[in-house]
Amino acid sequence: MEDIIIGVVALAAVFFFFLYQKPKTKRYKLPPGPSGLPVIGNLHQLESVNPQRFFAGWAKKYGPILSYKIGKRTMVVISSAELAKELLKTQDVNFADRPPHRGQEVISYGRRDMGMCHFTPYYREIRKMGMNHIFSPTRVATFKHVREEEARRMMDKINKASEISEAVDLSELMLTFTNSVVCRQAFGKKYNEDGEEMKRFIKILYGTQSVLGKIFFSDFFPFTRFLDDWTGQTAYMMECFERQDIYLQEIVDETLNPNKVQPETESMIDLLMEIYRNQPFTSEFTIDNVKAVVMDIVVAGTDTAAAALVWGMTYLMRYPQVMKKAQEEVRDYARENGLTFLSEDDVKNIPYFRALVKETLRIEPVIPLLLPRNCIKDTNIAGYDIPAGTTVNVNAWAVSRDKKEWGPYPDEFRPERFLEMNIDFKGTDYEFLPFGSGRRMCPGMRLGVAMLEVPYANLLLKFNFRLPDGMKPEELNMDVMPGLAMHKAQHLELVPEKVK
Ligand code: HEM
User: Fold this and answer.
1) Name one GO cellular component term (predicted).
2) Would you place residue 4 in the very low, low, confident or very high pLDDT band (cuts 50, 70, 90)?
């Protein structure tokens, strides 16, 4: 109750403060959108559950480019392939920046990372280095054995559950898989899954992720930092940041220790420490830069592949004929080649499965609104003004369900569509953008796909699944949990049965 009173009083204070401010901005012809209230704009109309569906609903009403306001900030949402191309290709350089966000600023050591960094010369250097080294095909291949080993461990656990016909929490298992893979790739650390160090890592990761996704008053209403402080947001942010920093500093200290045991494969932090020692960039690359970039890899790498696999298995439970076809294909392939486990090289040879991976990323792109872009200078899209400082999102979810692009049944889960049309997720087919496109496109695409494919293929190879407690497929909850990567809101629990 006390929180509500504080909130109401605070909002009223902000409301009256701004009501008596004279508007100073020049008149722009903004894209159409819902009319809002003075001061708060459209804040009161937004829904936090299933934001991609909510904005798709607005797009039906206002069109493929729409605008709305939160406080002083103009927000734009794009929902067609044609305008996505205009934004991410033709005008990419005007939108290659990220908008202000207090939590992201702190967590990324003042935007020294890649994902939240402003579009600066430093950003261009770190991005180039990332593409040539951290995320290069050679480096991704170096960790192949790690991903396959962890996938085998996951299958063993499911196997044990199948022996006693017990349901497994696939959401939990997949997060454990990605956490373990990412810790080994990023830090060269192999934690015991149920041990204290892994629990500590997960707690820190959740804290960091929650700060990255939080909305701070001061990002939308100038002079309201006191409200962030008052509502405890600042204290929570600092607590999460400090926990993260202590952890990352310990990892850095270990790499600096001359007696350190060399890991099986050079980890990503080792590579970043080499950059720290060699200082190849025009601006100084400090230990904080190392921590910021490694934080990016960990945050972006754990959630995304896990969320995608859970969505894929959820849709397969709802579309048993697709499940059957995919299982038959992988099982035939394994039988013909005398295999009991499918490796990263094997999945390249299974066409329906590859189409299934694409269909999974089409039907539920796990970052459905992509990461927001910040408009660098006044420009124009589709005849509307986009003022500098506007935040722009592409609703990749709406684009990948657009009838104009995908035919009459875009809501159907049908991998065949990718066998019939030559469309890929590499950022040049604008109707299909699960990894974004342009200068800020996901650099971890290859790694993300590799992390998704092996567990996915082996689940299909080794097990049949049913829903627990007589639940029907149509009863599966399809809501998303808001966050940077949108997980299925309810964990997916399935009862495995081992294939003889
Ligand atoms: C299935 C897995 C993944 C999906 C669907 C995905 C999707 C995305 C999307 C949509 C963006 C925003 C692109 C834009 O703004 O246009 C992004 C950015 C990014 N992703 Fe991924 N991602 C995945 C895996 C990964 C992995 C494994 C890593 C690293 C280990 C990673 C690192 C990043 C980084 C650093 C950025 C920010 C790039 C920049 O701003 O320059 N991602 N990702």
Assistant:
1) membrane
2) very low
- Residue-wise pLDDT for 131-143, tens only, equals 999 999 999 999 9
- CA-proximal residue: ligand 1, atom 23 (nearest): 448
Confirm if 19 and 37 have CB atoms less than 8 A apart: no
Q: Which of 6-20, 195-209, 250-264, 458-472 has the highest mean pLDDT?
A: 458-472
Question: How many whole angstroms separate alpha carbon 104 and alpha carbon 86?
Answer: 27
Nearest to 499 by CA among 171, 170, 155, 149: 155
| pLDDT value of residue 484 | 77
**What distance in angstroms lies between residue 435's CA and the mean position of ligand 1's atoms?**
6
CA distance 23 to 170: 52
3-state secondary structure of 148: helix
- Number of helices followed by number of strands (H, E) in the chain: 21, 11
| 304 within ligand 1 shell (Cβ under 6 A) | yes
For the chain, the domain total comes to: 1
Which SS3 state, helix, strand or coil, does residue 296 take?
helix
Q: Are 56 and 401 contacting, i.e. CB atoms less than 8 angstroms apart?
A: yes
Tokens of 381: 């899209």
442 is in an annotated binding site: yes
Alpha carbon of 347 to ligand 1 centroid (Å): 22
Neighbours of 456 (CB within 10 A): 26
pLDDT in tens, 118-165: 999 999 999 999 999 999 999 999 999 999 999 999 999 999 999 999
150 lines ligand 1 (CB under 6 A): no
* Cα(434) to centroid(ligand 1), Å: 9
Instruction: Report whether residue 440 contacts ligand 1, using a CB cutoff of 6 Å.
Output: yes
Q: Which of 483, 438, 444, 494 is nearest to 51 (CA)?
A: 483
Q: 497, 466 in Cβ contact below 8 A?
A: yes
Nearest CA residue ID for atom 15, ligand 1: 371
**Beta strands per DSSP E along 357-396:** 373-374, 379-381, 384-386, 391-394
Q: Which domain holds residue 363?
A: 2-498
270 vs 189: CA distance, rounded Å:
12
Coil, helix or strand for 133?
A: helix
In the block, residue with structure tokens 């947001």:
233
- Gap from CA of 465 to ligand 1 centroid (Å): 30
Ligand 1 in reach of 427 Cβ (< 6 A): no
- Looking up residue 439, the CATH number of its domain turns out to be 1.10.630.10
Cβ neighbourhood burial of 452 (10 Å; 0-12, 13-18, 19+): buried
- How buried is 382 (Cβ within 10 angstroms: 0-12 exposed, 13-18 middle, 19+ buried)? middle
Question: Looking at ligand 1, which residue's alpha carbon is closest to its atom 16?
Answer: 436
Q: Is the minimum distance from the CB of 148 to ligand 1 under 6 angstroms?
A: no
Q: How far is ligand 1, taken at its centre, from the CA of residue 257, in Å?
A: 32
Backbone angles phi, psi at 327, to 5 degrees: -65, -45
